[in-house]
């Protein structure tokens, strides 16, 4: 299939220090996840991508993608889209609570900016309907001239993507209620159409007037006859389905992993776009040398010859929240930091997590986490400029007054190291303060230690640096890495929306394996890199994509 280009193309290929090699364990992603879908007047499928603040147009025949609204532009965290009667693209911006309008020439204007959790959007006979995917969300008709909305319903349990059926009624799903409802667009009492589903997050109609609904929890694509309630499972893809659209009578669904899937007769499916990583964020290696990848709403284990295996995701039992930082702590457990401001202990196999700190008073933008020598969890709190330690429910501030701390690691002697992304340095915490280990960096994020070597990902300089812990040696191992925002792009903040996520932000993590392999989360392109120095005896690991 044509159109294999990844979502990110660097200014230059990655350059490596002498003797080092690089392998992508998973291929680069083509999208930043995939959320709202809508077939445009040109027959292409328009794909909203919350995490990447991007909208792309997909030719389902060729697989070619065109970026319609790019990261760093006026549109932030687009979740759903529809076309107005004049051909303008109307967009819900989930985290900013906005509805924007993008004209054919690219000019964008904000129609409303007071709709928290703005999500589902649909036109019917020139009338625009929008809902808010939040607890207590509203269903509204918007004035196309910017006047006050007409509220049809309030206090809904997270309504989502919706559409008017052939009977003229507006159908909408609710994630919190696990059901589908309908209401007359002119008002009146709502009627429940279907209940006890697989957590429906989108409703569209086929040419025969039947509901087709994606189930984010079960991964099913359901067809429901609104006249008699008869249900048919068209296909089961995977948990994390988000939306759907028809191109003529062909059905396409989106998923959080960025996969666009065509649903074929007999329960068969065809991947139009492959799945991939949305960011990724932090990396960690356990005592057996197994690599784990935190990807926000997903958490993966990498196995040579198999690829990435999902250990947990947003709708998994015991999910701790949007995972940003992760550290393997033994026996299948992890210390994690979440974007909702908690430090937790999580065991994916048992589906259980325990909030260690930040439950009643969330931290301000947690990033990296590491296991301390005494069994405590140590994390960087970027917003407060400090590093905290949690043991037995007690929180201790190890260092304060730091400039945007992000990465945390421990040396073999128990010394805590912290990257200050704002100050461009990595420091060693001592009883009297912080001592500089490496400086002159642009924006260091993830750090890792193996032996006497400190590895640092400088996201702004797009380099991987190896430095001696004694400060006497320093090598740029790789340059022009696909990390951080694209050159010249300044991404707008992703504010998040509870309960799904707190504020989101880029974080290029790094981990060191026992065989000398250095792993880097290439968040710009959505892949994981393995860098090896033959002198360290690193063995080659085969990457086979996501599983």
Automatic annotation (TrEMBL):
Residues 33-233 form the SMP-30/Gluconolactonase/LRE-like region domain. It comes from the Bacteria. Transmembrane segments: none annotated. It holds the Pfam family SGL. InterPro entries: 6-blade_b-propeller_TolB-like, SGL, Vgb, WD40/YVTN_repeat-like_dom_sf. This is Gluconolaconase. It comes from Actinomadura darangshiensis.
């Amino acid at each position: 299939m044509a159109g294999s280009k990844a979502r990110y193309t660097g200014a230059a290929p990655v350059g490596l220090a002498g003797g080092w090699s690089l392998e992508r364990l998973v291929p680069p992603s083509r999208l930043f996840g995939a959320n709202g879908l809508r077939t445009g007047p040109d027959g292409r499928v328009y794909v909203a991508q919350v995490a990447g603040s991007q909208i792309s147009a997909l030719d389902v025949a060729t697989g070619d993608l065109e970026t319609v609204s790019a990261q760093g532009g006026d549109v932030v965290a687009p979740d759903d889209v529809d076309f107005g009667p004049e051909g303008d693209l109307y967009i819900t911006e989930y985290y900013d609570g906005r509805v924007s309008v993008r004209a054919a020439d690219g000019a964008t204007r904000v129609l409303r900016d007071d709709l928290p959790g703005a999500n589902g959007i649909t036109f019917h006979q020139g009338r625009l309907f929008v809902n808010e995917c939040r607890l207590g969300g509203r269903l509204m008709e918007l004035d196309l001239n910017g006047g006050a909305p007409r509220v049809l319903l309030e206090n809904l349990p997270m309504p989502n993507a919706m559409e008017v059926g052939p009977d003229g009624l507006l159908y909408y799903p609710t994630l919190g209620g696990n059901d589908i409802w309908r209401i007359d667009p002119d008002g009146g009492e709502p009627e429940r159409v279907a209940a006890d589903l697989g957590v429906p997050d989108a409703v569209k109609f086929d040419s025969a007037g039947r509901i087709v609904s994606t189930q984010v929890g079960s991964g099913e694509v359901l067809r429901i006859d609104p006249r008699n309630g008869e249900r048919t499972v068209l296909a089961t893809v995977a948990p994390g389905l988000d939306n759907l659209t028809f191109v003529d009578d062909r059905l396409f669904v989106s998923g959080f992993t960025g996969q666009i899937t065509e649903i074929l007769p007999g329960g068969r499916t065809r991947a139009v776009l492959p799945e991939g990583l949305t960011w990724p964020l932090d990396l960690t290696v356990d005592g057996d040398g197994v690599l784990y990848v935190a990807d926000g709403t997903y958490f993966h284990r990498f196995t040579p010859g198999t690829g990435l295996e999902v250990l947990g995701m947003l709708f998994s039992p015991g999910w701790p929240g949007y995972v940003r930082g992760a550290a393997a702590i033994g026996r299948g457990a992890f210390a994690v930091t979440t974007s909702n401001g908690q430090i937790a202990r999580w065991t994916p196999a048992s589906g259980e997590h325990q909030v260690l700190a930040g439950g009643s008073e969330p931290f301000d933008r947690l990033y990296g986490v590491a296991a301390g020598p005494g069994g405590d969890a140590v994390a960087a709190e970027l917003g407060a400029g400090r590093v905290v330690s949690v043991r037995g429910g007690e929180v201790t501030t190890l260092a304060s007054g730091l400039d945007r701390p992000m990465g945390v690691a421990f040396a073999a002697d128990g010394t805590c190291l912290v990257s200050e992304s704002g100050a461009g340095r990595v420091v060693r915490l001592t009883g009297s303060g912080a001592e500089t280990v490496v400086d002159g960096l642009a924006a260091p994020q993830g750090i890792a230690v193996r032996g006497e070597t400190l590895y640092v990902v400088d996201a702004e300089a797009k380099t991987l640096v190896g430095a001696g812990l004694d400060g006497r040696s320093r090598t740029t191992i790789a340059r022009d890495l696909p990390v951080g925002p694209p050159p010249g792009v300044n991404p707008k903040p992703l504010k998040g929306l509870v309960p799904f996520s707190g504020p989101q932000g880029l974080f290029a993590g790094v981990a060191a394996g026992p065989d000398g392999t250095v792993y880097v989360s290439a968040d710009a392109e959505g892949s994981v890199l393995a860098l090896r120095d033959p002198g360290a005896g690193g063995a080659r690991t085969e990457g086979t994509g996501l599983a």
